[in-house]
Design brief:
The chain has two domains: 261 residues, D-amino Acid Aminotransferase, Chain A, domain 1, CATH 3.30.470; 48 residues, no CATH class. The chain contains eleven helices and 13 strands. Helix 1 packs across helix 10 and helix 5 packs across helix 6. It has a five-stranded antiparallel beta sheet with strand order 11-10-9-12-13. The longest helix has 22 residues. The chain is of the alpha+beta class and 317 residues long. The chain binds adenosine monophosphate (2 copies). One adenosine monophosphate binds next to helix 3 and strand 11.
């Protein structure tokens, strides 16, 4: 059995982790990126392909594929859901993530404090962030202080959702739900840094939310304990609503305001790029395992343990 992924996003994290756990690996790589990945000593993992879509036509029955942010961005949620790919993670959760209504249903079921959604412009009575559907990394978003400003800024040909704008610190917390160990682990936290919403000096009022990268964050321990409870509640809520287990990595995307209220506006049911800041380990994974465990390696350990218990197939649904 091999572990594979497409060469982008968190591929270095995933492939290096699988190698550390002695798995054979496959890194599906477009020609222009081959020198880059080779420079990390990954030549024996590289499978050169012209386009990421090609993985849908290949026989990958001996590969456990680790999905990351580029799968949906470059191939599309529908195509992945309908494919024969053996994904580590829950395909159903991907569907919930791709659908705004299901997404907020899950966040609410988990008992999270979520920003208010306004169904129409006339309902808007607070500053809002207008989100385009299926946006790649915040592209096309805008903020507005009231309904009039929304009317000025809106592009009539695009459909938006309007969410209350929360002023505060963006805190992204990643977790690992281990089926093999029957426990939810809090893995690490980071701050997503976005141009130019996070730039201090600006001369216009339409910041871009395009992601530049991530900055490691160590939370106050009392806050971390709250996030631990949130992670456990999220796993339970998905179990309750979808009647399915959530195996492996996930992330809850939040903003903490000045009253220290935590607002959850998003989740990802897979590895997120924010975990790249915690190679070779996060403070929490180090405390849990006593050795360097980064997210790619954590995934590989789980796969091995599930194989040993004979229950891997359930995690690949
Ligand atoms: P890339 O690896 O830059 O080709 O990005 C692939 C997809 O993942 C795009 O949709 C990006 O917006 C998203 N992405 C890449 N890095 C990050 C990050 N650090 N945080 C959030 N999204 C990311
Ligand atoms: P999303 O596409 O939902 O992940 O949002 C992209 C970015 O927009 C986030 O990383 C935040 O910087 C910002 N954002 C999203 N929702 C809110 C909100 N309700 N209040 C303030 N900022 C937000």
């Amino acid at each position: 059995m091999k572990i594979g992924t497409i060469a982008s996003h968190s591929a270095l994290n995933i492939i290096s982790g699988a190698k550390a756990e002695k798995f054979k690996t496959q890194l599906y790589c477009r020609p222009d990126r081959v020198p880059f990945y080779k420079s990390f000593g990954l030549e024996d993992s590289i499978v050169e392909i012209e386009s990421f879509h090609q993985i849908l036509e290949m026989d990958l029955s001996d590969v456990i594929m680790i999905p990351h942010g580029s799968f949906v961005a470059y191939i599309g949620a529908d195509k992945i859901l309908n494919s024969e790919l053996r994904l580590f993670g829950n395909k159903e959760l991907l569907r919930w993530e791709a659908d705004r209504n299901l997404k907020s249903q899950l966040l609410t079921e988990a008992g999270f404090n979520v920003p208010r959604e306004f169904r129409s412009i006339d309902e808007i009575n607070a500053p809002v962030i207008a989100k385009t559907h299926g946006a790649a990394g915040g592209d096309g978003y805008f903020i507005a202080k009231d309904a009039d400003e929304v009317k000025d800024k809106i592009d009539e040909s695009i459909s938006y959702s309007f969410q209350e704008y929360i002023v505060g610190t963006k805190v992204f917390v990643t977790y690992f739900n281990s089926v093999a160990k029957n426990r939810t682990e809090v893995f690490g936290a980071d701050i997503r840094y976005e141009t130019d919403a996070d730039a201090n000096l600006r001369f216009d009022d339409s910041p871009s939310f395009v992601v530049i990268g991530n900055i490691p964050l160590v939370l106050r321990e009392s806050t971390l304990a709250k996030y631990y409870d949130m992670g456990a509640a999220f796993v339970k809520a998905f179990q309750h609503l979808a009647n399915q287990t959530l195996p492996g990595p996930f992330c809850i995307e939040t903003i903490i305001d000045r009253e220290q209220r935590i607002y959850s506006f998003e989740f990802s049911g897979r590895i997120v790029a924010g975990t790249n800041v915690w190679i070779p380990y996060s403070p929490y994974s180090y405390l849990q395992f006593g050795e360097p465990i980064w997210m790619g390696r954590r995934i590989a350990i789980e796969i091995r343990e599930l194989m040993e218990k004979g229950i891997l197939e359930e995690a690949l649904r």
